[in-house]
């Protein structure tokens, strides 16, 4: 990807964010917005922040199990690397935080970055299937107000599409692992119509990538992977539920699950760093499905986004300072690796 292309991608994301911000703030009664903030019970904020960091901690625990076939890694390195990665996701475009996260841990543990990044692909697959489970549970249990049937139908259609995509990804990874040479040859054949430089980059990358794509066969460790995935998302949904309560919105936990699914789909949409606009729109329209006024829904969205944005950034900068790590250096290295992947 050229620098010019990267700038176009960033500008597109900013444009999408501005579009959603325009949709959200037009025809807003700012007096009602101020009233909603004034009625908020701020005592919920600290517990919500604590539980959010518990979710990050269990992400590091799951990552530890994913890395076991490569190396037994230290939580003292895993947790800071996780926080730095999520901080970078909030500040850098194109989800470079995933590359930053892999690079930082690779440097700390002396592991090849491509092998570490391969574990993050599996990490995302576990997230994807857990979110699908949440979506299916939500579909069968949530009760939207009358007139919102189209929203519920749209959610399940999106779930089936996502399920199909993840099934294809898993099938490719299984075949790549079981029949590596055959799969790489097939990919090479499919890439023949394209410029040779693409094949020259992709084929060596697949070979390097598969070396890091390992999963333990021990039942205890597999159970730990699935168990931590459930804990990660339970502790991600719980803060949303607490913040709804802080605004006096009393809805069943399935409503918080419903909103979380919206938020997950929102971060998949190209946007400015920090998912500004898309994240807020997902939260607002998710809440409006439960007949919550737009002004109150927007106030909730601003707080939920702030909670997921600022604490992890502060913690990430602390770990960068403590470990004397240059964000500029690792972001430049991560950008170069992203170019190779593309």
Automatic annotation (TrEMBL):
The lineage of its organism: Bacteria, Pseudomonadati, Thermodesulfobacteriota, Desulfuromonadia, Geobacterales. It is a multi-pass membrane protein. The chain crosses the membrane at residues 42-58, 125-142, 154-176, 222-241, 247-267, 274-292, 298-321. One of its GO terms (cellular component) is plasma membrane. NCBIfam families: flippase-like domain. It is found in: Cell membrane. The keyword Transit peptide does not apply. PANTHER family: UPF0104 MEMBRANE PROTEIN MJ1595. Signal peptide: none annotated. Keywords: Cell membrane, Membrane, Transmembrane, Transmembrane helix. This is Uncharacterized protein.
């Amino acid at each position: 990807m050229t620098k010019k292309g990267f700038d176009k991608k960033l500008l597109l994301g900013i444009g999408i964010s501005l579009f959603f911000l325009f949709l959200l703030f037009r025809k807003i009664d700012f007096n009602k917005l101020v009233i909603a903030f004034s009625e908020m019970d701020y005592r919920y904020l600290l517990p919500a922040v604590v539980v959010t960091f518990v979710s990050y901690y269990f992400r590091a625990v799951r990552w530890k199990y994913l890395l076991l076939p490569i190396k037994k890694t230290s939580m003292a390195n895993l947790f800071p690397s996780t926080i730095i990665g999520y901080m970078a996701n909030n500040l850098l475009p194109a989800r470079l935080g995933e590359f930053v996260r892999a690079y930082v841990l690779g440097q700390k543990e002396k592991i090849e970055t491509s092998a570490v990044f391969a574990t993050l692909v599996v990490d995302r697959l576990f997230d994807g299937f857990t979110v699908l489970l949440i979506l299916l549970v939500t579909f069968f249990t949530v009760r939207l107000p009358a007139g919102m049937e189209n929203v519920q139908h749209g959610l399940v259609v999106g779930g089936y599409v996502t399920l199909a995509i993840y099934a294809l990804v898993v099938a490719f990874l299984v075949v790549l692992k079981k029949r590596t040479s055959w799969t790489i040859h097939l990919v090479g054949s499919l890439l023949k119509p394209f410029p040779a430089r693409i094949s020259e980059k992709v084929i060596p990358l697949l070979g390097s990538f598969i070396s890091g794509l390992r999963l333990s066969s021990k039942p205890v460790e597999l159970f730990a992977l699935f168990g931590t995935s459930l804990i990660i998302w339970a502790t991600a949904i719980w803060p949303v539920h607490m913040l709804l309560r802080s605004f006096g919105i009393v809805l069943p936990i399935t409503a918080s699950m419903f909103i979380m699914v919206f938020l997950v789909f929102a971060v998949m949409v190209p946007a400015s760093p920090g998912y500004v606009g898309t994240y807020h729109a997902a939260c607002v329209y998710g809440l409006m499905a439960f007949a919550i006024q737009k002004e109150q829904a927007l106030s909730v969205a601003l707080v939920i986004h702030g909670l997921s944005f600022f604490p992890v950034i502060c913690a990430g900068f602390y770990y960068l300072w403590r470990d004397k790590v240059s964000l500029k250096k690792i972001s430049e290295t991560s950008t170069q690796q992203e170019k190779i992947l593309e």
